[in-house]
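**Protein fold record**
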Amino acid sequence: MSSTVSGTPLAYPQPAAIATLLKPITWFAPMWAFSCGIISAGQPVAGKWGLIALGVALCGPLVTGTSQAANDWYDRHVDAINEPNRPIPSGRIPGQWGLYIAIIWTLVSLAAAALLGWLVLAAASLGLLLAWLYSMPPVRLKKNGWWGNAACAACYEGLPWVTGAAIMGGGHVPAAPVLISAALYSFGAHGIMTLNDFKSVEGDKQMGIDSLPVLLGVKRAAVVACIAMALPQGVMMVLLSAWGHPYQAAGVGAVLFTQLMLMGRLLRDPKAQAPWYNGTGTTLYVAGMMITAFALRH
């Protein structure tokens, strides 16, 4: 059903509907990873607050907002059935405006990234490409749990981390430990993305989306997700110790050990316990990211 004003269909999107389309709740993860990048670079922030603020906007409202707008546009027919109150199927964002907003946000993102240097522009361009390929036919990475979750993990964790470090480093390629850490936590985020798929297993089957719970079954997908989350943290702990940061390695080990305990409950009933684990285990995961970032700054 289309939204109307005095019985007339809307010609332009409502501001509140645009905000809903861009899904601010999804901005936290990339902004957190960006903060890890800022800290891990080990550079003073004095005189760089304007660049940092622009980087936060780039990673959150702009690139992540673009991905949400593109996803809603290409999912509008499904949402008309399953979530008819979403901005596009409800008519609060009428006509082609969902697509227009995604395109405009892409261009604004690229312009903002260009102001932050070639490396940030490259990272943002890759993130935007993955955002479009995730949802847009015929590629539609989201139809395969391996590829779709990898794209999301890179956009939510790895690329924002590198972006933050690059800004603080004056546009230079970050040091190897920073890149390795960003890659490891990006790998682990694949498991976090899998946890989000447990809530829609039946719907994914009907729509032909091969999420990992669909491909592997719920139990096996949960095991794969736990391994994906735990393994890179274990490697990170070993690396931090080798790099001369034993206390931070112990901190990462402590949050990993606690997650392993929580994973036992998750594996008993993955579909029911995934939301609970997202609020507990995932919080510990991102805490380990910050511990790592503070280790690398020294």
